[in-house]
Specification:
With 409 residues, this protein is mainly alpha-helical. It has helices at residues 9-18, 21-32, 45-51, 58-87, 90-105, 113-141, 144-175, 186-195, 208-217, 222-239, 241-244, 246-253, 261-277, 279-285, 288-308, 312-340, 346-398.
Length: 409
């Protein structure tokens, strides 16, 4: 809708539908499904490894059960974005949700580690479609400040789901290593509910002749979005220090029992969701660059506290800062990307962003462990504190200057 035109009856009706509480629950439950990817089964990995102890290389294979989906999300998200832009969101989203649920649940009854790995690969492919499609729908359904609020709600639902399923996974794995796989059946429930509420956005229903005519003139310009992809990649590398390195700090440096690690990690997820929920309010006060600056400073403060103070209470505060900064960075990046992406390339742009997010998750332990091996865990904390504060300062300066498409507005 042009900026100066009055809202049509259709626009008013659409706004009424997408602000319905049940509609929002359906949409944001769909977006939060993807957090089940690894957190719910992570506590059962030691028992899974013990069950398949006779399989050669099970030490490595058991870890692949956790990381393999991220690799397939990374590779298939750009393809999912292309298909979603070309053929529509809903016709891919609902089948992907059902396959996602079935592929995830299959680990409950499969008794061959290689079949489980195949199911995890399929799970990763379907995650790419669900994650990209659901976020594209948020961009389609909402505009302006409504979109900022919607992205904040999406971040909150995602983080809240993560916190809940971290605890649920730990409880179910204490019964049997197979039980956490049952949680994926929730995807069927969400898919059925979503199918009664979600619809193909009218704005997306342009005919293929128009799309094909636009394609040669307005091809996808990857490097227009590359700074955003680089930022979210770096953000996930930093954020995933929480589950990959900080547990060792809690156990080895602070001498705490490993049983409290799961509870500690949930603090980060809760803070992630809480700050994502207030994103629209922050955007009313600050520019996009200003929010980036605040996010970097929060994360930098987390690592500075970990470096200086060695007690469990400070670790909890640091994890809250890390989660808060991570939540703001991801929501801010989604908001910025959706504001500059052409409508007919929205899912494609989001697909590459999803790929960057999961690439960051995959690369984080590889990058950070090499740093730890060279300068120690405390050295890692100090290094990232310095880098994050410098980046925060650069974005403070950038927020006072025009940049690209409204980065400073």
């Amino acid at each position: 809708m042009p900026k100066n035109s009055a809202p049509t009856k259709f626009d008013n009706k659409l706004k009424k539908i997408v602000h319905n509480p049940l509609f929002k629950i359906a949409l944001f439950s769909t977006t939060s499904m993807t957090v089940l990817g690894s957190v719910v089964i992570a506590p059962s990995l030691p028992s899974l490894q013990n069950h398949f102890h006779n399989v050669a290389g099970i030490d490595f294979l058991s870890k692949l059960v956790l990381t393999l989906p991220a690799l397939f999300v990374m590779f298939f998200s750009p393809l999912s974005g292309y298909l979603l832009d070309r053929y529509g969101r809903i016709k891919f989203l609902f089948p992907a949700m059902v396959l996602w649920s079935l592929a995830g649940f299959s680990g409950f009854f499969l008794d061959d580690i290689y079949l489980i790995l195949i199911s995890r690969a399929i799970f990763g492919i379907t995650t790419a479609f669900v994650m990209t499609g659901a976020t594209a729908l948020v961009g389609d359904y909402y505009l302006g400040e409504d979109r900022q609020k919607a992205l904040g709600l999406q971040g909150f639902f995602t983080a809240a789901g993560s916190a809940v399923f971290i605890s649920l996974g730990g409880y179910l794995s204490s019964i049997d290593w197979r039980y956490p796989f049952l949680a994926y059946l929730l995807g069927i429930v969400v898919a059925i509910f979503a199918s009664t509420k979600l619809f193909e956005p009218h704005r997306h229903r342009f005919d293929k002749k128009t799309q094909n005519a636009q394609a040669p003139q307005n091809g996808f310009r990857f490097f227009n979005f590359f700074p955003i992809y680089l930022l979210v990649f770096f953000c996930m590398v930093v954020y995933y220090i929480s589950p990959t390195q900080i547990p060792f700090f809690i156990v080895h440096n602070l001498g705490k029992d490993s049983d409290i690690v799961g509870v500690s990690m949930s603090v980060s997820a809760i803070a992630y969701g809480a700050f994502a929920l207030f994103y629209s309010r922050l955007r009313n006060m600050w520019s996009i660059a200003g929010v980036y600056a605040f996010g970097f400073c929060l994360m930098g403060t987390a690592f500075l506290l970990l470096y200086v103070f060695h007690n469990y209470l400070i670790v909890m505060v640091s994890l809250a800062f890390l989660g808060a900064g991570g939540g703001l960075m991801i929501v801010n990046s989604s908001s910025y990307l959706l504001s500059i992406a052409p409508e007919h390339q929205r899912a494609k742009a989001l697909g590459f962003m999803a790929s960057s997010i999961f690439f960051g998750q995959f690369a984080s332990p590889l990058i950070t462990q090499s740093i730890v091996n060279n300068i120690s865990l405390l050295g890692l904390f100090l290094l990232f504190a310095c880098v994050l504060y410098v980046l925060g300062l650069l974005f403070v300066l950038r927020s006072k200057k025009p940049f690209g498409h409204s980065l400073a507005t």
